[in-house]
Design brief:
The chain is α+β, with helices and mostly antiparallel strands. It is built from 4 helices and 12 strands. A hairpin with a 6-residue loop joins strand 5 (62-67) and strand 6 (74-79).
Length: 191
């Protein structure tokens, strides 16, 4: 995985009603809101796993971390912000916030992926999906008719299948997220 979304532990021992984060990040226990601290993850990309033990968040409910395998970039974004969240323990090269960007390469195409945008669990999963869709579409990708990339996210299919081909037809990306739409425009400018 090159992206993880983790819960931030809340100190429930306080006698007042304010919930203050302990700062530890982790996964929620099964059937519970209790956060089990995570200091390592065997399915995370090594550069992502290396961040887990030291990161602390105050003023947020969840934290997304993402790394770009192709670029070596990293991003972090706090979800459920309460006031001005603080993140500590991240390497200096990690960009922070919903507009923070990493670049990834899939099917020979460089993609921009903002912290707030959806992307597959990693570039290998995205590559497998692109290959499967390419095989399923067959000759239709050479057709100059209109193509639709529904739930397009950052424009993965528009960039790798449609824009990278010689087709002259119109490509439409349908997506609700403003940051993903901005990424799709950058990744597949003709769509």
């Amino acid at each position: 995985r090159t992206t993880v979304r983790l819960a931030v532990a809340i100190d429930t021992s306080r006698s007042d009603t304010r919930q203050i984060g302990t700062g530890r990040i982790g996964l929620r226990a099964a059937g519970s809101h209790r956060v089990v601290p995570l200091t390592d993850c065997p399915v995370a990309h090594p550069s992502l796993a290396a961040m887990l033990a030291d990161v602390r968040v105050i003023g947020g409910e969840e934290l997304s971390l993402r790394v770009g395998v192709a670029s070596g970039e990293a991003s972090a974004m706090v979800h459920g912000e309460r006031g001005q969240p603080r993140i500590s323990g991240l390497p200096a090269n990690v960009a922070i916030g919903p507009q923070a960007v990493v670049h990834e390469e899939v099917a020979g195409v460089r993609l921009q992926v903002s912290a707030a945008s959806f992307f597959q669990s990693g570039p290998l999963a995205a590559e497998l999906l692109v290959d499967a869709v390419r095989a399923a579409c067959g000759e239709a990708l050479a057709d100059d008719g209109a193509m639709l990339d529904a739930y397009g996210g950052c424009g993965l299919f528009a960039a790798t299948l449609y824009a990278a081909s010689t087709r002259q037809g119109r490509t439409v990306v349908v997506e609700n997220s403003p940051t993903a739409c901005a990424d799709a425009r950058a990744n597949a400018p003709g769509a």
